[in-house]
Design brief:
about 400 residues, alpha/beta, Rossmann fold, seven-stranded mixed sheet, about 35% helix, elongated
Length: about 400
């Protein structure tokens, strides 16, 4: 049998608390399947173009290191938001990429990321086929936004949802203790540009001992600020504490982001995405001015994607599973594909790794079905809760040193 060459793996886009579990899955499977070396791109395809990479065997020395890596948040290898141009726009970039791949004797290129990362896999695999290059290209799903097509859900989403649900409960308890002499409205801002999966997760806070948020607004439904004002006003006649959850990407009917009303969303990234911030702050100020009530805004920001101390066991295990499945699929000859998570059973919950053509996934966005929101568009239904609850189950305790979690750190 011919000796196998090498694998290279990179991470791209916004990180999650379990993205490194997928990296661990790629590494472990590649070594078990006899690949010679496993390289890691430093800062994704952008760093790779500058020939920034590391031999992962110099970073991972034992099974204990793999377990530590699975519990380490953020992108261990470093990430990027780099849009690979179309082939006809800049063929020199593709020639450079493949010359580096050949120099390193790379057989398999694996990219862990979201929608934009799958676009990179699509372009590279297409180029390889047209030009007759031998390398295989596989995508591993990653995004707390849960907006990748054809996969039941994405690694990173379950842990972010767990953190959001728990934190929302704590915010609700906190608010109840601050409303002795004056009613208060708390507006929670959650990540989500066009898909409201994460914001919907605030409904997990509704339990036997907690009412949960009073209102939930997702970007899938146009936001009517006057109806919002009326609804909050009605709620304040019945209770002293009102808690509202909003996606950062909620829009008015005319297409403007709510955060733009306060002058936000001016910065645009390489993919043309506006940077959204200030939605909760604007709405809290608006309510204070219109109703004269006490208000506050809470923005989870990067905490929702980096809180590995609250990672879901289901999420970490599935992230590891899809990383390993990508290495296996490439070894068996697949290319231009993304590994997906198929839900096999709800009760008991079971999942398995599948694989689909990346062309059917890249640049397609999965949003929350309209029938998973109520008629008014200001709360999620039981179908949404039943979908999300299995994904937050179990814990993966960090390795604690002096009372704080220990992480694996890249040594350059």
């Amino acid at each position: 049998m011919a000796k196998k060459g090498n694998i290279i793996v990179g991470q791209s886009g916004g990180p999650t608390s379990v993205i490194n579990s997928s990296l661990a899955g790629v590494y472990k499977t590649a070594k078990e399947r006899g690949f010679h070396k496993v390289y890691g791109m430093l800062h994704g395809i952008q760093g790779f173009l500058d020939e920034q990479y590391v031999d992962l065997s110099t970073q991972i020395h034992s099974d204990m290191d793999i377990e530590l890596l699975k519990r380490t948040p953020s992108a261990f290898l470093g990430s990027c938001r780099y849009k690979l141009p179309d082939i006809h726009e800049n063929p020199e970039i593709y020639e450079k990429i493949f010359s580096i791949l050949d120099k390193l004797n790379i057989e398999v290129f694996i990219y862990i990321g979201g929608n934009d990362s799958m676009d990179t896999i699509k372009k590279l695999s297409d180029y390889a086929i047209v030009k007759g290059h031998r390398q295989k290209f596989l995508g591993v799903p990653k995004t707390i936004d849960n907006d990748l097509a054809l996969t039941d859900h994405t690694p990173g989403f379950g842990s972010a949802a767990k953190y959001i649900g728990a934190s929302t409960k704590e915010i609700i308890r906190d608010a109840l203790g601050l409303t002795y002499d004056k009613a208060m409205v708390t507006v929670i801002e959650v990540m989500g540009r066009n898909a409201g999966w994460l914001t919907g997760a605030t409904a997990l806070a509704k339990t036997e001992e907690c009412e949960g948020p009073d209102l939930i607004y997702l970007p899938e439904v146009s936001f009517d600020i006057e109806k919002f004002l009326k609804k909050v006003s009605e709620l304040l006649k019945k209770k002293v504490s009102v808690v509202v959850a909003v996606s950062e990407g909620i829009k008015l009917e005319d297409g403007r982001y709510v955060c733009e009303l306060s002058g936000g969303a001016n910065y645009v990234d390489a993919f043309g995405h506006k940077q959204l911030q200030g939605t909760a702050s604007y709405l809290a100020g608006f309510l204070k001015h219109e109703l004269g009530c006490k208000t506050r805004s809470v923005e989870f920001s990067t905490l929702q994607r980096s809180a590995s101390h609250m990672a879901s066991r289901v999420d970490i295990n599935e992230a590891f599973m899809v990383g390993g499945a990508a290495g296996k699929a490439a070894d068996e000859g697949d290319t231009g594909k993304m590994v997906v998570i198929d839900r096999v059973s709800d009760d008991p919950y079971m999942s398995a790794a599948g694989i689909y053509d990346v062309h059917k996934i890249a640049n397609n966005e999965k949003t929350v079905p309209r029938n998973w929101l109520n008629k008014e568009g200001n709360y999620v239904t039981d179908d949404f809760i039943n979908y999300i609850e299995p994904l937050i189950q179990g814990d993966y305790q960090p390795f604690m040193v002096n009372g704080l979690p220990q992480h694996l750190v890249l040594k350059k």
